[in-house]
Amino acid sequence: MLAVKRSISQLGYRFGCKILPLLPSWPGEVAFIKLLNTRLSEELHDGLFDFLDNQVLEVNVTDLQIRLRVSKRDAAFVRALADVEADSTISANFADFLAIASGREDPDTLFFQRRLCLGGQTEIGLTVKNRLDAFDRSRIPQWALRWLEVIAAELAVITPKYRE
Amino acid sequence: MQLALGPAQYYWRRNDINHFYEAMLSTPLDIIYLGEVVCGKRHELRAADWLERARILAEATDKQIVLSTLTLLESNADLNWVRKICDNGNWLVEANDMSAVQLLSEARLPFTCGPAVNIYNHKAVEHLMSMGMVRWTVPVEMGSQQLSGVLNACEKKPEVEVFAYGHMPLAYSARCFTARHHGLDKDNCAYRCMEYPHGLPLASQEGEELFVINGIQTLSGEAVNLLSHYPQLCERGIDILRLSPQWQQMAPIIDAFDRARRDDLDPQLLPPGVDGYWCDRPGLELIARSGIATSE
Amino acid sequence: MELVCPAGSLPALEAAIDNGADAVYIGFSDETNARNFGGLNFNDKNALRALERIRNRGRKLYVAINTYAKPDSFTRWQAAVDRAAGLNADAVILADIGLMGYAQRRHPDLALHLSVQASATSAPALEFYRQQFGIRRAVLPRVLSLKQVQQLTAASCVELEVFGFGSLCIMAEGRCHLSSYITGESPNKNGVCSPAKAVEWRKVANELETRLNGVLIDRFADHENAGYPTLCKGRFIVDGKRQHALEEPTSLNSMALLPELKAAGIKAIKLEGRQRSPAYVSQVVRTWREAIDQVLQHGDDFLVKDRWQETLAKNSEGKQTTLGAYDRPWQ
User: Are C31 and C121 in the same domain?
Assistant: First the structure.
């Protein structure tokens, strides 16, 4: 059973690595930003993300070659224009992003190990990291959290830790 | 404006120390601080030797003699050294940490506070004055704006001394960096810091002079020089300028500051150094280039 | 022995409580605390939530207000003390004597702990803070050897807390201006060492360069681990040699000394890391909880388990963990 699950994840992961880089822009970006706006509405309302006003943050998922470009305008996250250079970049592979999101790994630990990289204005990247650490996980539906943990644990095994 | 010779930071040989201070007698300094402030292991001059040095100098001059205490105390031996200085019975003491403040105030003696005592606001100044502080040497990282803020808010002011020339003491550690550089640990340091009478320079990988290593202490890579700010220092009510002992060329430094107080200010007399801290900027910056700085 | 744990956010505080913290220390999100980083720490709303969770679980809450108040904004630091007192915090951790005087007069029942930033390393220094401000506990700077800690504990008039684990600050805390010399901002004045706005990471050829206000701190080859961009952990040129002239990126881990620290009478062990995530807090706090329980139950038979060592090593800055100044050869 375990072996079957693992080969399915491996297949999915390899498929993602092949297909996603071929797309002009990641179709999930709109959905992702929408999700951020719903989940972080309290923080947005409290002005906790105002530091992103008119700034472009790029989240770079290295192995899948996905670049999420996020900015903020009028109390909402928005997609950044394609031709604007990012003010700050956070890069890691998909497994490590999921490990952070699921609470498996500490971002500073990954940073020390060179698995998480910050570029551009460090302060923006650091503040984003701290704001996301402060996110109250009890506001994520239990089933979603469980899935996140399962996938993160799977990927942690099948993804090579270091860029070769 | 009075001119003070701060306590020596580096480890010099006994004879060199004695000659250095003898040479200071004929300079226009008003105040001389004496004593080991960096490392309790340095033994060319122990506490009793510094007291003896103070006695000899005091007999030869009417400059004010002040004894300085160690900054970072670790062992009981360090504490005993500080006790001996505080119990000297004759001279004013510069407290460089709260141990000395406590010992001096218990003995109901007046004292001065050195730049490594963390005094950043008027409440702290007032509290220490209530315990006997008569003079305050401002932390080296404090800018003129914050200093004015402190002084304006103080009901009663102590004498105020500013670190005006020399490499600034920036940090103290349990670790001896000079020993480490030579692959030695502190317990077996072989007193290697004596080989560096003006410290061991540390530069960035691009060759920028950043710091000076001096045993357990780290000093600024560039010397601070507030000569061109002399008019502003007077305006801000500073009473004393501290000039930090240099291995060589101390007399011309004293002379340049002495000229300033005789209305003959010439910033070109000394290398420019840095003045960032005083201008409320990063310490390594040089804001007033060569000319006389005007207050804002 | 009390286990005092860091929290930079509400989830981190919960992680600390869930994993066995006896006390959690937090700061307000401004320059009144020594981890004044963007997005970190507690606003009033979250501080209240923190208190509620602490009280529900019967733990203690300490508030660190451990920077030095500025004269023109002294009221901001006063307000921080008032807020902590208003929360009914179990103690405030202070470094500035101006602020201690205020706290003592205004809130005589509020317990004062002396922050490591005050750098008190001798019995008379501790006596100064006790006599003048009634401090009940002091956190010792990471500059003393084990023998010195033992001597000081014997002579001290107040409870002592020491660092157990975390990124290693090699300078006497509160007496280091390296950061302000290069960037203008320092722990004492601004609650930051190497402020993020001055930090730049850049990939140049095969190396990762890190700069602080333009000054090159280090270059890392691809296989090398990175550290926080602090000056004391950079690689510099001394006497023609490129080296970690001050310190390598390293974490302090004094777990092996727990029996001795307990025997010496140390009252509390502090874990560093308010800037770290809930994941770090969970793992490190759980490990230390198990270790302290082991010491309390088995005393002299205490041995550091491999599993604990692995968890701590994984969460360390730098590959190795050392005893730091507790161990004389390090000095």
Answer: yes
CB contact under 8 A, B123 and C219: no
Residue numbering of the annotated binding site of C: 169, 176, 193, 232
Q: Kindly determine whether residue B187 and residue C329, on different chains, have CB atoms separated by under 8 Å.
A: yes
Domains parsed from chain B with CATH numbers: 2-168+223-269 (3.20.20.60)
Task: Give the contacts of A147 (CB within 8 A, at least 6 positions apart).
Answer: none
- Does any domain span residue C210? yes
Fold classification of A2-158 is Nonspecific Lipid-transfer Protein; Chain A (3.30.1050)
Residue of B nearest to C234 (CA): B204
Cβ contact B104:B95 at 8 Å: yes
| Strand boundaries in C146-293, DSSP class E | 159-167, 171-176, 199-204, 207-212, 215-220, 236-238, 241-243, 251-253, 268-271
Q: Does residue C52 share a domain with residue C102? A: yes
CB A105 within 8 A of CB A96: yes
Q: Which pLDDT score, from 0 to 100, does residue A160 have?
A: 59
**Neighbour subunits, A (≥3 Cβ pairs < 8 A):** C
Q: Quote the ipTM score.
A: 0.96
Residue spans of the domains in chain A: they are 2-158
Interface test with C, best of B218, B279, B285 (most C CBs within 10 A): B218
- Partner-chain contact B281 C215, CB within 8 Å: no
User: Is C111 found in the same domain as C37?
Assistant: yes
- Looking at the structure, do residues C137 and C22 belong to the same domain, yes or no? yes
C12: which chain A residues are within 8 Å (Cβ-Cβ)?
Answer: 133
Answer yes or no: is B154 a known binding residue. Answer: no
- Could you give the 3-state DSSP secondary structure of residue B181? helix
- Tell me, yes or no, whether C173 lies in a domain: no
User: CA nearest A95: which of A61, A127, A134?
Assistant: A61
Tell me the CA distances in angstroms from C230 to C5, C33, C170, C171, one per residue in order: 23, 18, 11, 12
| pLDDT tens figures, C202-261 | 888 889 999 999 999 999 998 888 888 899 999 999 999 999 998 887 788 999 999 999
Phi, psi torsion values for A91, nearest 5 degrees: -125, 140
Structural domains in chain C (count) = 2
Q: Do C233 and C260 fall within a single domain? A: no
pLDDT exceeds 70 at position A163: no
- Residue A56: closest CA among A70, A44, A73: A70
> In the structure encoding, which two tokens stand for residue B275, read together?
């003045």
Cβ pair C9:A130 closer than 8 A: yes
Q: Are C99 and C85 in contact (CB under 8 A)?
A: no
Residues C162 and C188 in one domain: no
Q: Does residue C19 share a domain with residue C138?
A: yes
C81: in domain: yes
Return the CATH number at C46.
3.20.20.70
Domain boundaries, position C131: 2-168+250-330
In Å, how far is A96's CA from the nearest CA of chain C? 13
Residue C272 lies in a domain: yes
B18 CA to chain C: closest CA distance, Å? 29
Based on the fold, state whether residues C291 and C159 are members of the same structural domain: yes
Q: Which two tokens stand for residue C42?
A: 């507690």
Smallest CA–CA separation between C214 and chain B, in Å? 11
The 10s digit of each residue's pLDDT in B161-210 is 999 999 999 999 989 999 999 999 888 999 999 999 999 999 999 999 99
Interface of A with C in 101-120 (CB under 8 A): 103-109, 111-114, 117-119
Please name the amino acid found at residue A33. Answer: I
